[in-house]
Amino acid sequence: MTRLRLAWRLARVTVHLLAGLATCALVFPWASRTLRDKATRRWSRRLLAICNVRVESAPGAPALEHALFVANHISWLDIFVLNSLHPCRFVAKAEIRSWPVLGWLASAAGTVFIARGNRRELRHIFKGIVSVLEQGERVAFFPEGTVGQQGGVLPFHANLFEAAIDAKVALQPCALAYLDANGGWHRSVDYMGEVTFVDSLLTILKGAPVRARVACLAPLEGSGAHRRELAQAAQDAIQAALSGAATEQA
Q: Phospholipid/glycerol acyltransferase domain location, by residue (predicted)?
């Protein structure tokens, strides 16, 4: 990619981020949930299009309107990929708040941030998740707690799964995958190690087109379950879906 083309893409991203800031500041405080979800979906799709990321729904189960979503975590793109199809209130690690502009946008869109190791804050956030679920909204989080390598799933932390039990809502696992033109894992999306947000953004903007696949899997009943059982069942379901995707690519 030429420097001029990269500069043009960066300019488009910047303008789109500014538009998102304006929407969050001027529209979201007074918007209904329906309008907020519509704006979030449209804005996320536009951001991904600028980044040359095409989102598609993989075969699976219908997405529930009222549920606790959990997904494997690969990239900073994950939040926007899910929001482009199924807008959610997200629970995410506190580091995301420090991302340039996107961190503020995520916060303004209702994302709840968790500081690692802060048990008192975790309990407070847990009560907030239950309250939002009881209001009929969809909440999502990444139970691995950090980004992992594509094709694999790190052990799920079970603490927040209890929110589905207390709110008596279903838990819906979602498998995320980023594919290249040949159907293999798209390595430009990897966000591990010492890679910064800016490094990742530039790599994606300079890279080949990305196919982001979202597979909503069969819901798991939260009422009457145990959080560790729910966490393990969700982890197994997502890993099986990713293994199936890898088999299809072979």
A: 67-179
How is residue 117 written in tokens?
């190791």
pLDDT tens for 147-200 read 888 888 999 999 889 899 999 999 999 999 999 998 899 989 988 888 888 899
Q: Calculate the CA dihedral of residues 88, 91, 94, 98 and round it to 10 degrees.
A: 0
- To the nearest whole percent, how much of the chain has pLDDT over 70? 90
**Tokens (6 digits) for 209:** 């087109």
Domain count, the chain: 1
Domain that holds residue 47: 3-249
Q: Please list, in sequence order, all residues whose beta carbon lies within 8 angstroms of the beta carbon of residue 137, skipping any fewer than 6 positions away.
A: 33, 66, 89
Question: Tell me, what CATH number does 68's domain have?
Answer: 3.40.1130
Task: Give tens-digit pLDDT for 53-69.
Answer: 999 999 889 999 999 99
Say whether pTM exceeds 0.85: yes
Instruction: State whether residue 208 is helix, strand or coil.
Output: coil
Where would I find the H helices in the chain? Answer: 3-26, 33-50, 77-85, 102-108, 119-134, 162-167, 197-206, 227-249
Contact partners, residue 56, CB within 8 Å, separation at least 6: 211, 212, 213, 214
